[in-house]
Automatic annotation (TrEMBL):
Domain F-box: 17-67
Domain of life of the source: Eukaryota
Protein name stated in the entry: Putative F-box domain, galactose oxidase/kelch, beta-propeller, F-box associated interaction
Entries under PANTHER family matching the protein: BNACNNG10540D PROTEIN, F-BOX PROTEIN CPR30-LIKE
InterPro entries: F-box-assoc_dom_typ1, F-box-assoc_interact_dom, F-box-like_dom_sf, F-box_dom, Gal_Oxase/kelch_b-propeller, SCF_F-box_component
NCBIfam families, A to Z: F_box_assoc_1
Amino acid sequence: MAKRDKQRRKKPKTTYTLFITSLPNHILQNIFSRLPVRTIISCKCVSKEWNNMTNDPIFKREHFSKKTVSPILRTFEPRFWPTDLHLIEAICTDDLVFHQELHSKISPPHVPFTYVPNELNISKFGIVNSCNGLLCICTTPFNNPIYVCNPITGEYIMLPKPKMNPGLFCYQMDEEGKSELYMTNFVVSGFGFNPKTNQYKVMRMMELETTQETRYVTIQVLTLGSTSWETIGSIQSWDSIGLRLEQIGAPIIQEASYKKSFCVYLNGAVHWLCNSTYNTMFIASFNFENENIVEILPPSQLRYQGKQGVGNMRLGVLNDCLYLTDVDSYVNFKIWVLKDYNDPKISWTLHLIIDTISLNIWPRGLYQPIKYLQNGDLFMFHPSNALVCYNPNQKTFRYFKIHGIDSDFEMVPHIPCLLPIKDVVRVEDPHLHILNIRSYFTTSLFIF
């Protein structure tokens, strides 16, 4: 009896419920910085405190420091030209479904192409490449860069009008001081960052053809914030840097108006695949610090693939390393990685081999690796308009079809940035005029 009374007198256990709103601000900020952009935008609507926290520049910098790759999807076809981009935010394979819907739509600025021929004054655009959360946009079909934008915030910077533009006749002084008529042709361009000076730059190479039918390629560089392009040199021909007109999509080719993104940025330089006149392939790199073009040798097994081999390869960035993919007769898909970028020996490592025949998977062929997901799956894009997740340990594939898209599309690796352009570019220049496709009364991000 006494024992029973003693049990009755025991104090009841106290339970505590911890709400996420009770967490300290620095812990909340750390949690939120790992979330996708779409989720952060939803959290802004929960409370005034969360809205203020996600608007804090310190939070935005912490979110960007995670460098979470979220590729941008852009559809393209000859007759219909959509002007919207879509952000694919996948952290693990469970974030994807078999018929993937496109939710996060971002709209690049619709600006008039004021310095292109009238017949090309249409709302078509191309993507040069992505760098540190910014996109460089170009005209089509000549691929002339016209503005740099942050597709998340809707801000953009118009690039100054060059003196020479593709598709137009222009006069230029030769070495003897004589004025000569030139016809400007196709442009190859790249967008990047010089970490030594903290400057963003746009490079463009353009072929000039004189009335005497002589041709050469001039190279120009624009520092973001300056008012004019600087000519830094010239090369004899596209062949000098391993380019072919059909490879870069010259305007004489009908499909040029919807060509895919051409180069990739890494470590202060843009890179592209090339094949020389000696039927060998290499990687060309334009360095934004030295403003020169250097040659990077591929793995020795791929050196003599030539023109046909370049068509079966892809260049990209995976885990902050330059990669090169190759496929043998649609059987073995290989990923080569350049881990030490500054190693003068250029030592490539065979990172992964996928035997697509033994796995009995579809689609086969050439994949474009995007990133590794948190569960270890390799997230890739296939030209059949599909997303693929490959598990290297279990050697299994999961295939995801994009729902509601009938046209072809490309995937451009991108790191979303919530910071305004002025905080990214960091240029205190009165000539730098930042525009926005949204009204200044709007505070929400231009993504939905």
